[in-house]
Amino acid sequence: MDAIFIQILNGLDKGAAYALIALGLTLVFGTLGIVNFAHGALFMLGAFCAVTFQKLVTISAKVRDEGVTAFVAYKEQPYLESWFGDTGRIIIDYSVPLSIMLAIPFMLLVGYVMERGLIKHFYKRPHAEQILVTFGLAIVIQEIIKAYFGANPIPQPAPDILAGSANVGSWVGLGDNLVYPWWRLIYLCFSGLIIFAVFAFLQFTTYGMVVRAGMRDRETVGLLGINIERRFTVVFAIAAVVAGVAGVMYTPILPPDYHLGMEFLVLSFVVVVVGGMGSLGGAVMAGFLLGIVQSFASMNEVKEIFPGIDQIILYLVAVVILLVLPRGLLGRAGVMDD
Amino acid sequence: MTNTKKLLLNDTFVVIIFAAAILAMPIWLDPIGGNYPDLLQKFAIYGIFAIGFNILFGLTGYLSFGHAAFLGVGSYAAVWSFKLLTMNVIPAVIFGVLFAGILAAVIGFLSLRRTGIYFSILTLAFAQMSYNLAYSVLTPITNGETGLQLARSDPRILDRLFSQEQAAGLPSTDLFGETMSGYPGFYFCAVLLIVCFYISMRIFRSPFGLMLKGIKSNQNRMRYTGLNTRPYMLTAFIISGMYAGLAGSLLAVTDPLAGAERMQWTASGEVVLMTILGGAGTLVGPMLGAGLIKYFENIFSAFDDNVLTQAFSFLPDSVLEFVVPVVGLFVGSGWHLTLGLLFMVIVIFLPGGLVEGFRRIYDYFKSGGGNAKTQSVEARNQAGE
């Protein structure tokens, strides 16, 4: 029972990451009709926003280490700490969540520039060419990051207070020895919040209503005198922000390196396709479903019966779903059929 | 003019030109530093891979993201043939093609039920499954992360039957006594490449090829005419998988080692890049793209700051300090950046790939007048390589 509970949490956690990336991916596909292979790279860019922010706040000066009296010793002290004392220390401690403030404007900018500069010209081109050009862009982004940050993963600590584990067992009455890292729980809540925010934006605002109308029938919305292209640009930027903040928050779980994006890209494409191209609910559902399935498959009891199942389960599920349901879980007819 | 045109369009003539260009590669690649056997072998092998991929993608428009699986299976089958049967390369190649064909039949049968991106994701999923299995459960067959290697204690039944003496050290692959490394290896691959090119050309010109092109332009209409498109697609998929298997077995022939990373999706991505770069749906395009990517990979990645400093030594020091790090970003370990940029530029400005570029240059000079005739011939020749 305990193990199953933990696996569900694990699965939700993994699923949250998949769902967030897949959400942005399918948002872009549903509105712009673009298959964006650079979306994983946006996730990675977000993660590196956190790295940059942490580097910025810990720019240090060499100061005399008073603790050592035997000889003259120096230590690195961040400027923030020497200027603001405890406030500075708190900022450094909370650098990961705070770097969202850097990530949001940065990703908005990246998304806007990318859409206006490149994606715009590919609306009418075949999907294969869209895949290829964004794939090229993903390689370029990845290599630039590699050139500046090196090839090694850069660990990002979660704030001290959240570094430990939560006693989730006692919350649900399953005993005290059932613990789960705080940060992963926070990530789960955070992604739920983001997913809710995106849906609320599309469902309950006039802007979102127009965007949804544009997803259905872009031409008619255009004929009604609405500049749908500009709205779609905004949607693209929002998708970039969603991927970016997902990347930021994921850094304490997985130290980011330059090919983080590619690893997630393939999986999140599988997620999007399983959910049904262009279906937001499908993407989120498939994300959580695949996450949970994967974490159950990696249980030792399951692995004993089917060796190696944890390695292939995602793809196996994807293949079965696609063969049984031609358009994925919630896909609409007529989308990407040719 | 009409006479030369007829001559240029003549299939036999094209194949002869192609064969001459391939076999003479050691000569004309020498001035640009491409003349060493390892690289030449790669040109030929990845040329086969890309030509095979093009039979599927170029003719039918189905974008497979899982062709690396066939490459990997071909390699494994070839190495097992070396281990169990004989060091002769003929059975290895046959087994490589056969097993890749069987796998392609299975994957194709399932994947071809869907079209568009669903097909791409299905092939990707199958390839990733093969890759992950090769790393984990199938370790007895694939030797996991270490990769499958030859050992002195391998049975090699056929070799033992015909010769008693056992050479010291690891045996090397051979073709009836001729060792398959260095230039002989290249020529073996090159001959197979020419054969493959010829077959691909026959397919392009055949009614079967026309049928595939019809499926590409409008599959529904083909169905409405009462044609069952599935068998045609499956045949194209299997042929294309067999090409990949052949390429994989040749990789094992030139270097008897097979690793799972050959099956990873990045390897599938690479062949897509090659085909698009050269020009999907054209005969020589994929070969051109494969050659270009492999050439850049080898030449560019060998550059480092020292080489650059020498190359730019004519510049004043202050400029040099600025230029070397900037250019250094694009070469050496960062050559992927160049690849990505090159690739984006090609897709944005030349969706038809290099072949379309040459055609545009040719057309430009043709309409420009007679004085540019020599250049247009050059463009034509380059396209024919």
Automatic annotation (TrEMBL), chain A:
Q: What GO biological process term is on the record, naming one? A: amino acid transport
Q: Name one GO molecular function term.
A: transmembrane transporter activity
Question: Is Nucleus included in the keywords of this UniProt record?
Answer: no
UniProt-annotated location(s):
Cell membrane
Q: Does the keyword Transmembrane apply?
A: yes
Topology in the lipid bilayer is annotated as: Multi-pass membrane protein
Listed under GO cellular component are: plasma membrane
Query: Any stretches that span the bilayer, and where are they?
Result: 15-35, 42-61, 90-110, 131-149, 185-211, 232-253, 265-291, 312-330
Q: Name the major location.
A: membrane
Output the superkingdom of the source species: Bacteria
Instruction: Family membership, please give it.
Output: Belongs to the binding-protein-dependent transport system permease family. LivHM subfamily.
> What protein am I looking at?
Branched-chain amino acid ABC transporter permease
User: What species was this sequence derived from?
Assistant: Sneathiella litorea
Automatic annotation (TrEMBL), chain B:
- Keyword Calcium in the entry? The reply is no
| InterPro entries noted in UniProt | ABC_transp_permease (IPR001851), LivM-like (IPR043428)
Q: Give the domain of life.
A: Bacteria
Under the GO molecular function aspect, what terms does this record hold? Answer: branched-chain amino acid transmembrane transporter activity
Q: Which residues cross the membrane?
A: 12-31, 43-65, 85-110, 117-138, 185-204, 231-251, 271-293, 337-358
Question: What are the subcellular locations of this protein?
Answer: Cell membrane
Q: How does it sit in the membrane?
A: Multi-pass membrane protein
GO CC annotation terms, alphabetical:
plasma membrane
Q: Which UniProt keywords apply?
A: Cell membrane, Membrane, Transmembrane, Transmembrane helix
What is the protein's given name?
Branched-chain amino acid ABC transporter permease
Q: Which organism is it from?
A: Sneathiella litorea
